[in-house]
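> example.struct
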């Protein structure tokens, strides 16, 4: 006969509780279907929280219950029950592969928010057709990799802990829950935990052909080595790849070390992949990319490494003042298209519409939809975007995070924008002054100080900021001329930093004053009279963000150490007060001279690295003073 659906609630409850008693008596597990599934379900009654009365009963406290299908869409509720009741376990079969990729990832993340990892398991649940076994097994591994990779990147798990989580979720938890008694082959050898992540990644991230190892040199240029995936996971992820000392002495105009950097082709370092930054490339899914640290040998950082320099100065801020600096960047750039003029290729603006033009965004929307999707897959927060004042110019605003992650995110965001623009036969350039007759592009950065998860830059002082906030900002203002040698690193940078262009040409600060290089900000949601952060406008797309933030941090630390105070804010255009307000360096030569006189940055960033930076900047000055039109080639390098 046909199946019969029981609808009498009392009878259903009797069958259910009797089944629980029998299962407990014979020490059998029991699977409970909550959440989505049968089409005639009343989803309001499928919430697993309705089980609480049963779970609270002492007679069922020894039961072993597993909630199936992630209890979708009640994944958070299921996670809560597993965290509170010892007898509740979770299975995310059917949700994978039935949901969308975003749905699968988000539901697993919700399960793991509260539920212990040793109570989460997977079954393929091939309820409709046998191919579901394959799809479930394949997609489950991809999704778990994505979720645990993010957990490692956020610091919730170490890589060895993530590896153990994989073993638990796909094997050990089910073995213990169902009391399976048969030999189970180990996931991997016990030779070395450092070899495990590669094996797990190689299995889960199927279809990866190459891994790009990315670094940024002292002239701010993105560079990479491309490694076949098999070799990367077998050898390179642990031992790195070789790179000549000369690579950190190169300039924006040639691929050779500048004379006064003390760096030559003699000597070699190792580019060691930072696996916490490894990402699947959204626009080329057959590849992954990872940021590299520079080591003399594995485990021994090289003193010229930009990422290590930022970490080093961040540690000083933490150890001396128990503070962390957060940063959020605003990326300005031009989109250019290729045209033929007189038989030669010329790159011209994508359009010629005004600031915040709706038609400009509409024309570029296909690019930005891909950019936003790529940011999402890379866990980069996109806060807003709009057309800027220049012809073909746009701005993309990134969310704030700890300064080390913010610098990494800025590098990834540049890679995304340039690569996706290239797919659309456009050229994205972050150079400071693409056209001397048009608006310049910056990488404005918003900074704040945090302590134990709280923004402590805000305060009730006369300026709406705390004492430590004022001292830190006063240090940055004091050292701003020499900071420019890091944040405005090429002569073209100073074509941008001009009065009356909202780029901050004078050594001053202001409250919501966009002509000041340092601007305190009170964004929506902040109480009136308080400021949550300050913005530095004199930061552009040719700067290595790790070195730029390291210089800013060092200056702020000096302000904290010496308890510096801010002068009165400038509440008008400083160009109108030219005689009263000091002009910031008008050229790279002037900022380099300021850097040569500075001792604070030398102490905190490191003498050898500063020697190299000074040598590179001098070479830039000499070359571009002799080759007046050479700056036009920077669109291809930045």
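> example.seq
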């Amino acid at each position: 006969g046909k199946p019969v659906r029981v609808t009498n609630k009392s009878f259903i409850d009797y069958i259910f509780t009797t089944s629980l008693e029998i299962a407990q008596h014979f020490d059998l597990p029991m699977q409970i279907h909550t959440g989505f599934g049968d089409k005639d379900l009343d989803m309001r009654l499928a919430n697993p929280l309705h089980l609480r009365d049963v779970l609270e009963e002492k007679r069922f406290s020894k039961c072993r219950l597993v909630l199936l299908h992630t209890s979708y869409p009640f994944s958070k509720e299921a996670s809560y029950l597993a965290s509170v009741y010892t007898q509740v376990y979770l299975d995310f079969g059917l949700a994978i592969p039935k949901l969308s990729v975003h749905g699968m990832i988000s539901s697993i993340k919700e399960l793991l928010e509260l539920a212990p990892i040793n109570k989460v398991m997977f079954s393929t649940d091939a309820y409709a057709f046998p191919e579901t076994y394959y799809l479930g097994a394949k997609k489950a591994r991809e999704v778990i990799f994505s979720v645990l990779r993010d957990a490692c990147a956020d610091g919730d798990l170490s890589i060895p802990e993530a590896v153990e989580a994989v073993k638990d979720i796909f094997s050990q938890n089910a073995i213990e829950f169902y009391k399976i008694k048969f030999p189970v082959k180990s996931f991997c050898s016990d030779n070395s935990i450092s070899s495990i992540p590669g094996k797990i990644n190689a299995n889960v991230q199927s279809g990866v052909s190459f891994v790009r190892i990315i670094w940024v040199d002292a002239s701010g240029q993105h560079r990479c080595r491309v490694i076949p995936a098999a070799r990367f996971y077998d050898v390179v992820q642990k031992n790195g790849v070789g790179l000549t000392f000369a690579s950190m002495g190169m300039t924006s105009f040639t691929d050779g070390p500048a004379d006064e950097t003390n760096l030559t082709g003699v000597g070699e370092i190792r580019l060691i992949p930072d696996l916490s930054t490894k990402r699947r490339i959204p626009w080329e899914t057959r590849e992954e990319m990872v940021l590299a640290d520079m080591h003399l040998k594995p485990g021994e950082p090289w003193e010229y490494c930009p990422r290590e320099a930022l970490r080093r100065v961040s540690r000083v801020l933490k150890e001396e003042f128990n503070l962390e600096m957060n940063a959020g960047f605003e990326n300005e750039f031009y989109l250019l298209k290729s045209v033929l003029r007189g038989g030669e290729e010329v790159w011209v603006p994508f359009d010629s519409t005004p600031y915040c033009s709706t038609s400009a965004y509409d024309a570029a929307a296909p690019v930005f939809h891909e950019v936003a999707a790529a940011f999402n897959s890379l866990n980069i927060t996109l806060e807003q975007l709009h057309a800027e004042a220049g012809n073909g110019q746009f701005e993309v605003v990134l969310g704030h995070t700890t300064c080390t992650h913010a610098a990494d995110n800025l590098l990834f965001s540049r890679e995304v924008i340039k690569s996706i623009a290239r797919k659309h036969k456009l050229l994205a350039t972050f150079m400071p002054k693409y056209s001397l007759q048009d608006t310049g592009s910056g990488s404005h950065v918003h900074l704040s100080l945090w302590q134990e998860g709280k923004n402590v830059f805000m305060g009730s002082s006369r300026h709406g900021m705390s004492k430590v906030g004022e001292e830190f900002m006063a240090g940055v203002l004091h050292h701003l001329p020499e900071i420019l040698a890091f944040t405005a690193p090429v002569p073209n940078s100073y074509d941008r930093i001009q009065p009356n262009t909202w780029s901050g040409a004078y050594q001053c600060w202001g409250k919501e004053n966009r002509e000041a290089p340092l601007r305190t900000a009170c964004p929506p949601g902040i109480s009136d009279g308080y400021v949550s952060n300050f913005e530095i406008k004199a930061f552009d797309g040719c700067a290595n963000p790790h070195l730029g933030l390291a210089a800013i941090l060092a200056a702020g630390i000096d302000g904290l150490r010496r308890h510096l105070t801010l002068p009165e804010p400038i509440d008008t255009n400083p160009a109108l007060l030219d005689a009263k307000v000091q002009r910031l360096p008008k050229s790279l030569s002037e900022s380099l001279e300021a850097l040569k006189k500075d001792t604070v940055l030398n102490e905190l960033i490191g003498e050898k690295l500063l020697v190299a930076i000074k040598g590179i900047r001098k070479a830039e000055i000499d070359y571009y003073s002799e080759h007046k039109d050479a700056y036009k080639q920077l669109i291809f390098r930045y």
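> remarks
The CA atoms of residues 279 and 298 lie 22 Å apart.
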